[in-house]
Write a structure and sequence with these properties.
Length: about 70
């Protein structure tokens, strides 16, 4: 009779431990997923466009040599 009681206790402990580890992994994965999107929204890549043209840059573009691809 005692053997059955210990095995039932071990089974309950194993299932509880498995569920706790599963919840921990799921929570950490979700946290990492949300953290990545928040960091992407704060990126400096998205900047407002300057409506004023920089004439020196336009002159540099006009002075560039164009290389045509060889067939």
């Amino acid at each position: 009779m005692k053997k059955n009681k210990y095995s039932r206790y071990f089974l309950i402990l194993a299932v509880t431990t498995f569920l706790a580890i599963f919840v921990l992994i799921a929570q950490k994965s979700y946290d990492n997923l949300m953290k990545a999107t928040v960091e992407a929204k704060k990126s400096n890549l998205i900047v407002p466009i300057d409506p004023n043209l920089d004439l020196t840059i336009l002159d540099q573009i006009e002075k560039r040599k164009e290389f045509l691809p060889t067939p």
